[in-house]
Design goal:
Length: about 210
């Protein structure tokens, strides 16, 4: 009896694992065609790591880690959680595909099962976001932000993903078609931003007086 119970539990566990929805975590131009732009780019010419010295240049540098975050479609983006798989990383400066990350592939969205072809409205709608950071600052995005608030970071705009039915054609149906380009750069401290705002306000007042 105990053996049968163990087998039943094992089968149920395996079934639940395989029922989890998945997504292809890639942004190469073959998988995600343009437009829109799908690359990760440097925000400024002087962003650390930007070897081109050009604002908006496609990001390179294997020190930049790229992780997929997910949650319910209605969730606040700050509550999204990272997938269990290891992050991808941007390519080396010698790459012929700058702005594209490597070590991507299938990512499991725990808690969001595959959809139903007979009931498209019943499929799970998931909110996704891509986050980038310098691994020299921390092993995770959160650890890096805590260790070095002035480091190089980037977050894509949150986007929706409709989990396809399990019988859908892989991998085309599982691409992140809602993903669009975003930039990474140094985020100014609040005090620095406040000073910049005061400076701009002062200039406006002086111009009005003239």
């Amino acid at each position: 009896m105990k053996k049968l119970t163990l087998i039943a539990v094992t089968v149920a566990f395996v079934g639940s694992v395989f029922a989890q929805g998945t997504v292809q975590f890639v942004n190469d131009p073959v998988s995600l065609t343009a437009p829109p732009d799908r690359m990760v780019r440097f925000a400024a010419a002087n962003t650390p790591g930007n070897v081109t010295g050009i604002a908006g240049a496609p990001t390179v540098g294997t020190n930049f880690q790229v992780q997929l975050y997910y949650g319910a479609a209605s969730a606040d983006p700050s509550t999204l959680v990272p997938v269990a798989s290891a992050p991808g990383r941007m390519r080396a400066s010698s790459t012929v595909s700058p702005g594209v990350w490597s070590s991507g592939g299938i990512r499991t969205l725990t808690g969001f099962v595959y959809g139903d072809n007979a009931n498209p409205v019943g499929r799970y709608n998931v909110q996704l976001q891509v986050r980038v950071w310098d691994i020299a600052d921390g092993a995770t995005f959160e650890a890096a932000r805590l260790a070095n608030p002035l480091g190089v970071f980037g977050l894509s705009s949150p986007f929706n993903y409709l989990v396809p039915a399990s019988g859908s054609s892989p991998p085309a149906d599982f691409f992140m078609t809602g993903f669009q380009s975003f930039t990474i750069g140094v985020v100014p401290e609040p005090s620095t931003m406040a000073l910049a705002g005061l400076g701009a306000a002062a200039l406006m007042i002086l111009r009005r007086r003239k």
